[in-house]
Write a structure and sequence with these properties.
18 helices; 2 domains; 438 residues; five-stranded parallel sheet; binds nicotinamide-adenine-dinucleotide; Rossmann fold; eight-stranded mixed sheet; 13 strands
Length: 438
């Protein structure tokens, strides 16, 4: 394939060398003449393991050329990988100056092009940038149409400095965000041979995944380091602890607990986190990230409350009260906090929870209910159809199949359903569906 690469920093230079190694003809473009001169001389513009030899090899192979001319690079190639820097501005926002300038330049270059071209944005970009900002610039400058004369897509880059050639050859996955088939098909030709899954998604989701991955990495590093500081104060070996934490592939290093949903609660997580915070406090260990967990969890509950309040509805039905599906445990259930809020605001509230109902009938958990939430217990109704019928808005905190079926059967078109559990059959609901954050 004939590929141009804009921005020959870490990402662009490694991509240029690896694509030329794989037999593609590559045109490198940068505004920095020194980088162009180095590449033209078969030398690497970035310090990376393996790059000195690889650049010498590909330069000798004759498949690499360099230019400062955007027009020439777009004209001579069928696809452009755009890898210019997107650093932080002073206020923390993304500085897109280089990217915006380049979008204008490639748009102007497209005026003269008579065959379709694919623009692959590989720089990290805040979600929405490709579709809302860059695509309109290219269309306006070129006078041409996306999907007809050219395509745009976003392919996040996952290589790490220091091991970038190895990461290029073995990425965690290839993700292509595109609004048409054509660009994904072309990228399969370039990257489909790599030993990883190839996923296509929306452009915005692909932009967001890159941020999500980097933020998750930062979170993991900080979690390990906070744990180590507390271990140090407790005279525990942090390596031993984190090694064992990582050996649990069922709950820890897995997709468990990583699906969007409602707030955590129950008899373990809140109390153990509190005890950890207390341990840290009395030993003067600062754990700001873990201290923020409970604050963030409360924000999530407040988010649900806000969605109910903004609806203006005052007759509320709650489906589910215990802290998760399949248990009758009400201790620190975030759904109890929701119920208490609605009662406190003087709203009409009915609650259906088959597990809690059963336990109060049989007496299990009854003591807890009578001692701590008697005001809530008396709002329980064991008939889901009645709870639905008497409500203007339903808060669904239980996702089992029987609940879904009852909602599909009984919800009316004039009712609002606030879904906290990502209901699988929501398309079949007659009411006005509102997701918690989706
Ligand atoms: N460095 C990494 O490990 C890494 C990994 C994944 C993603 N990324 C993302 O990839 C992007 C590039 O990162 P990098 O570290 O390679 O950046 P870099 O700063 O090393 O290189 C950017 C290059 O773009 C050039 N440039 C600026 N304006 C240009 C223009 N108009 N035309 C052509 N070239 C131009 C600069 O001269 C520079 O050589 C960033 O968005 C970054 O967040 C970086």
């Amino acid at each position: 394939m004939q590929v141009s690469i804009f921005g020959l920093g870490y990402v662009g230079a490694v991509s240029l060398a690896c694509l030329a190694r794989d037999g593609h003809r590559v045109v490198g473009v940068d505004v920095d003449q020194a980088k162009l001169d180095l590449i033209a001389a078969g030398r690497t513009p970035v310090v990376e393991e393996g790059m000195v030899q690889l650049m010498a090899d590909v330069a000798a192979g004759g498949l690499v050329s360099v230019t400062r001319e955007t027009r020439q690079a777009v004209k001579e190639t069928e696809m452009s990988l755009i890898c210019v820097g997107t650093p932080s501005a002073a206020n923390g926002s993304q500085d897109q100056t280089a990217m915006l300038g380049l979008a204008r330049d490639v748009g102007i270059a497209m005026r003269e092009k008579t065959v379709p071209h694919v623009f692959v944005f590989r720089s990290t970009l805040v979600p929405g940038t490709v579709e809302d900002v860059l695509l309109p610039i290219i269309e306006a400058e070129s006078g041409k149409k996306d999907g007809v004369d050219f395509h745009v897509c976003f392919q996040p880059e996952f290589l790490r400095e220091g091991s970038s050639i190895r990461d290029y050859d073995k990425p965690p996955y290839t993700i292509v965000g595109a609004n048409a088939e054509a660009p994904a098909t072309k990228l399969r030709e370039l990257f489909g041979h790599l030993p990883c899954e190839f996923y296509t998604t929306s452009i915005r989701a692909a932009e967001m995944v890159k941020y999500c991955c980097n933020n998750f990495h930062a979170l993991k590093i900080t979690f390990a380091n906070e744990t180590a500081r507390l271990c140090e104060a407790l005279e525990v070996d942090p390596f031993e602890v984190m090694d064992l934490v990582c050996k649990d592939r069922q709950l820890n290093i897995s997709s468990a607990y990583l699906k969007p949903g409602f707030a955590y609660g129950g008899s373990c997580l809140p109390k153990d986190l509190r005890a950890t915070m207390y341990l840290a406090k009395i030993r003067d260990v600062d754990l700001p990230m873990q201290a923020a967990i409970a604050v963030s969890n409360r924000s999530h509950i407040d988010h649900a409350i806000a969605k109910v309040m903004v609806s203006g509805k005052r007759k509320i039905g709650m489906i589910g009260l215990s802290f998760k599906t399949g248990t009758d445990d009400l201790r620190e259930s975030p759904l109890v906090l929701l119920a208490e809020h609605f009662v406190g605001k003087g709203m009409q509230l009915r609650i259906y929870d088959p597990e809690v109902q059963l336990s109060s009938l049989l007496g299990a958990n009854r003591q807890y209910i009578e001692r701590h939430v008697p005001h809530i217990a008396k709002l329980l109704d064991n008939n889901i159809a009645t709870v639905i019928a008497e409500s203007e808005l339903l808060v669904v905190g239980l996702g089992d199949r029987r609940v879904c079926a009852a909602l599909i059967d009984h919800v009316r078109a004039d009712q609002v359903v606030l879904d906290l559990v990502n209901l699988s059959d929501r398309d079949e609901l007659r009411g006005h569906y509102v997701g918690l954050c989706w």
